[in-house]
Write a structure and sequence with these properties.
This protein has four helices and 16 strands. By secondary structure, it is mainly beta.
């Protein structure tokens, strides 16, 4: 699953790349995006800033409401469940990415492995979004299995990556057509195993839902 990704392009670059209107205003976002923090998405023809992760409100032992956790990954085989269904059917988005990261190595010594598409400075992962009382507009990244791809040597799951010709179908096609796009990436994937500690990324692991 993906709990960290890079998006190093400006809002205007993203808007031009995806032929969208920059509606993000003065929103702040980092080059590295973590669950619960703001990132850019393309939705309804606009580049918008949203929080990464749907809020999952848990209840404590005494019945008290606990701080929401960001559910930032949506499993393809769960898109028809109550938690995701309405967003998948009515509010799909593109998530601009320059690379995504996975943790590798023994516990306590995990490092970042970055995955990207060769000779592709910006690409789109499939996403869903909604409005929330807790964080305003928020989004989650759709995940599929990585079997048969270059990414399988790093993790058993990967983001659903969308070719440019599939962007429109994901955003506005019928749900069954969008679901057909939720497959492992068939092209080459560049893998960069680094010595960077996973560190902060490991502190934001809400799990896959």
């Amino acid at each position: 699953m993906c709990n960290l990704y890079r998006m190093t392009k400006t809002r205007s670059e993203v808007a031009g790349w995806f032929d969208a209107v920059d509606a993000a205003g003065g929103a702040n976002f980092g080059d590295e995006v973590y669950p619960g923090y703001p990132g850019l998405v393309v939705a309804e023809g606009q580049v918008r800033a949203m929080a990464w992760g749907f809020p999952l409100v848990l209840t404590g032992k005494q019945g008290q409401k606990l701080k929401p956790k960001p559910v930032n990954n949506a499993r393809t085989d769960k898109l028809g469940t109550f938690f995701w269904r309405h967003s998948f059917e009515h509010r799909r988005c593109l998530i601009p990415i320059t690379a995504w990261a996975e943790a590798q190595g023994p516990k306590g010594q995990m490092t970042r492995t970055w995955l990207s598409l060769p000779d592709t400075p910006l690409f789109a992962a499939a996403g869903v979004w909604r409005s929330s009382d807790e964080w305003g507009d928020c989004y989650s990244m759709v995940m599929t299995h990585s079997e048969g791809t270059d990414a399988a040597s790093v993790h058993e799951r990967m983001p659903v990556l969308l070719a440019p010709q599939d962007h429109a179908s994901w955003l506005s096609g019928a749900p069954q057509d969008a679901l057909a796009l939720c497959r492992p990436w068939a092209g080459a994937i560049t893998i960069d195993r680094t010595s960077q500690p996973w560190a902060k990324g490991a502190a934001h692991q809400p799990g896959l839902f």
